[in-house]
Amino acid sequence: MTKTNQWIVFKRLLTYLKPYKWLTVLALGLLLLTTVVKNIIPLIASHFIDYYLNHVNQTAVMLLIGYYLMYVLQTIIQYFGNLFFARVSYSIVRDIRRDAFSNMERLGMSYFDRTPAGSIVSRITNDTEAVSEMFSGILSSFISAVFIFTVTLYTMLMLDVRLTALVALLLPVIFILVNLYRKKSVAVIAKTRSLLSDINSKLAESIEGIRIIQAFSQEERLKAEFEEINREHVAYANRSMALDSLFLRPAMSLLKLLAYALLMAYFGFRGLNIGISAGLMYAFIQYVNRLFDPLIEVTQNFSTLQTSMVSAGRVFDLIDEAGFEPVQGNSAAQIEEGIIEFREVSFSYDGKRRILDGVSFQVKQGETIAFVGATGSGKSSIINVLMRFYEFESGQVLIDGQDIRQFSQAELRKKIGLVLQDPFLYHGTIESNIKMYQDISDEEVRAAAAFVDANEFIQKLPDGYKSPVSERGSSFSTGQRQLLAFARTVASQPKILILDEATANIDSETEQIVQHSLEKMRQGRTTIAIAHRLSTIQDANCIYVLDKGKIIESGTHEELLEKAGLYHKMYQLQAGMMKEA
């Protein structure tokens, strides 16, 4: 991230302050007031030392009381200033996370195909948290440092120009060190954040695939891969810490000691001759602290600031990602009959290799068609195009004679029901998973469950429809999860039903129940089924055989067997395997 890019990111972050401008102004006002109070304290002490140290009277007592009251006042004002800054910070991070999540929800499947889930999670959680640190701690400390530096320098000049000039000799060295640190640290910090994202991605992948990892004894390999990324992350984190140690607090502390030495030497050699009092010297030592401490704090936080800028850039990349799902029209067109037609449709995931090549077919209202073929032949791609997860390259997709692009996305999602091979259940209850937060009554939920033969096993659960569903529904069998997915689809009353290998992962006994449910679901609905088990689609009105993105055979089950083509070979192969089993 270049200096220019950092400035662009910083200005964009400041735009998030706009809704909280008055709270920010109040926080800044309190910071300024804190600075003024801090600078008054040494003046009181200086006056006490010069005039009342050797003869304490009522005025001296009042000065001492005022001195300590100033510390109390400083603490109170600083507390509220930090509190208001923290509120602004957390509000801004909430807004950034909302924008990032909102944009993520609009992105097309192609983005998720090329971006690991762990990386996305890292951007919305870890990276936004780094931005929070910038606003709550770094930005407030930086502004406070500016106030303190300016007010302190002004106060020192008013007290004694010569002593101030001595201290000011070291200021250019500070700015040189900060600039050197910025140049050397950006790449190291960016790499550290990137490796942290890789750690999250590897962790998410390992948790998601833990069964396969254990089944194939891949634990050692995954541990080695994780450790390699982890080791590299530690190496870059150590390099970042080495830069911090070289350029930040130790260097700043050394410069502060040099400033003390200059003041003490000047006071020792010239103080008595030029009339510098002990009280003035005490005040200057305190002001050197006031001058250097905020600079030390800012430089110490500079690494966190760099991290925040890199993290903010990563979050903004997600917010700016424009790979949205295909655009739909805003017309009031509705899907009434569910007639589907593909006309010479071609499609590619990467723009280079065609997955569908001139596919044409038609499904009339209430008919069931099926697609079969080898893995990679394009079966699921037809579903992806019809569901508008991806944009097709050429041809036409029609529903009820209208271009699919003319329907609103809400209409498509409402009227097209999708049942996947691996049903996904949310954390919640059975009832909420069937409703999917739609305007569906409890009676409709139970009717949908009864329609797909899921009511029986649900009623046997201790809490019935209120029974909890763990993450991904892991406490239910595959068949039970599939029946719940069926109930969810039926409850929305779709006109078109898409079955993407809905019985592929189900045992033979459960398959009979599921098949019976599917038969009822298909009644009166236009249905497109993808299946590996040819026995599940023999009653389809038409079966299409795909090979390398093209339809090479079509017909009913009996017609395709008579042709003795690819479908016939597939059927014989599956029949032979069943006999052997």
Q: Characteristics of this structure?
A:
21 helices; six-stranded mixed sheet; alpha/beta; ABC transporter transmembrane region fold; 581 residues; Rossmann fold
Structural class: alpha/beta
Name of the CATH first level of the largest domain:
Mainly Alpha
Measured between the Cα atoms of the first and last residue, the distance is 61 Å
CATH architecture level-2 label of the largest domain: Up-down Bundle
Q: CATH topology of the largest domain, anyone? A: ABC transporter transmembrane region fold
- Report strand %: 5-15%
Classified in CATH, the superfamily of the largest domain is ABC transporter type 1, transmembrane domain
Number of strands: 12
Radius of gyration (CA) equals: 35 Å
Mean pLDDT: 81
Lateral strand order in the biggest sheet: 6-9-10-3-11-12
Low-confidence stretches: none
Shape call = elongated
Helix content: 55-70%
Number of domains: 2
